[in-house]
Amino acid sequence: MAEKKELLVGRQYRYYVHPKNKDTNDALAVHFEESGDRVCSDEKKRFLFETRDHNLIAYIQRSRREMNLKFLVFVQEGRGKIYPWPFDAAHPRKKPKPRKKAA
After folding, report:
1. Burial class, 90, CB count within 10 angstroms (exposed 0-12 / middle 13-18 / buried 19+)
2. pTM of the model
3. Distance between CA 77 and CA 11 in Å, rounded?
């Protein structure tokens, strides 16, 4: 178990955000230092903002609706390929359990 924990701690992740419009690009440029064109796993070249800060990705994800941001999130482990990351994927809701009627 300790070996598995060490492997998880040692992984290096980079997060990328691809703005879908000019307004989103302008809003995100304030938060990111590095940016540029990168080739993703689907062989498409995209302009991506880069960060290693997962909290920054979580922040812009939470702010998406109120700031009307439109973007895609990608992730890269180590020096691997850049893959789409369904950070905002909807989670299926559990159906509520039926309540027992009081006798």
Report:
1. exposed
2. 0.72
3. 7
The rounded percent of the chain whose pLDDT value lies above 90 is 50
Q: Where are the alpha helices (DSSP H) in 52-93?
A: 54-63
Give the chain's domain count: 1
Q: Residue 65 domain-assigned? A: yes
Do the Cβ atoms of 70 and 20 come closer than 8 Å? yes
The helix (run of H) or strand (run of E) holding residue 27 is helix 22-29
Tell me the C-alpha distance between 18 and 50, whole Å.
9
Asked whether residue 57 is assigned to any structural domain, the reply reads yes
Q: Which CATH number do you get for residue 72?
A: 3.30.70
Task: Please list, residue by residue across 52-69, b when 16 or more beta carbons sit within 10 angstroms of its beta carbon and e when fewer do.
Answer: eeeebbeebeeeeeeeeb
pLDDT in tens, 69-102: 999 999 999 889 999 987 655 545 556 677 777 6
